[in-house]
Amino acid sequence: MHIDGDCLPAFTRVKDSFAIALEAFPTLGAALSVVHDGNVVVDLWAGHADQARQHPWREDTVVNTTSTGKGLVAALAHLLAERGQLDLDAPVARLWPEFAAEGKEAITTRQLLDHTAGLPAVRTLLPRGTLTDWQQMTAALAAERPFWAPGQRHGYHAVTFGFLVGEVLARASGVDVRTLLAREIAGPWSLDYHIGLPAEDDHRAAEVAPSVPIPGAPSNPFGPLSDEDRHVLLLAFGNPPELREHTIVNDPAWRRAQIPASNGHGNARSLARFYGGLAAGGILDGVRLFQPETLESAARERVRGVDAVLGLPDSFASGFMLPSPMRPFGPPHAFGHPGVGGNLGFADAEAKLGFGFVVNQPLIAGLGGDPRWKSLIDAAYASLG
Known about the structure:
- The chain has 385 residues and is an alpha+beta fold.
- The protein has helices at 12-24, 69-82, 109-113, 134-142, 160-173, 177-186, 227-238, 252-256, 268-279, 292-298, 371-383, and strands spanning 3-7, 29-36, 39-47, 63-64, 194-195, 212-213, 264-266, 283-284, 287-288, 303-306, 313-316, 321-322, 335-339, 343-348, 353-359, 363-364.
């Protein structure tokens, strides 16, 4: 597969690993970027942006990066906290009074960030179309009863994370998440990343193909769960019902909506630059957005153990996922967020490295994370010398 883009000579092994990964695993289109010490040292893309393979992946192609967007949402929370606009350890209900219903009056924003709030799903079956309606989704969550005692377990809030944290951000800042991200992070750091893709950018959005299982990988990517927890899992990934339909991610309504945990659109370059800025202590291109101590706190481990929703061991900081045997990205001190199918962005402050990888042919990898990550990440670190 032909590869376009740039790669500094010292990082040619990254390009070689990218080429091998493209051939070794089912690939429609993909992009890879690495930032070191604030500079883009790898910026590569290959393949096609559509399932008919008529449109090549281009420099300005963006794609639904799935859950990698959670990292940017988390960063917004820490940014507002640093500015004194948001107290992460105060009850959410102080900003969002309706949220106090059903015993949620003491849940904090920090618990929303570290997935211990007990709200990974909504019990009431929601009608089709609810997912793209912010008011309906947040009202349903405000009225919901926690699935477990807040703070006692952690369980991945796959979709609800974005609505929960996003509503807190909106109430603390006075603007919606789309606007806040563009104004406070994407704009200042020149990131081509969007929660709610503008209609004028549809022409450069890659079409996402159906997921492909990796030969030998388990068909069920989740761990063992009790009947009760399995019911929560089904609700988390299937309510509203459109969550069960692959084609929704190519629908204009999905692209246009604000679903912060799941529908951020961007490219590998923007993920690498974002995490490169975090790895540099909060500064990119001379623009400081965060103080180093803010990021140190944001990346500090909050929970570790078997996830109540996924049934697998994982670890979270305040909004960021941390490396674990099931999600082996970077060294133990790295922080970032993967996304279903193979997307990944992370920061390593010690190495001053930011990493971004996106695809439009999701792989069902099963346990151990995406098999492409290790070779690409190993090549990046080996290139540092």
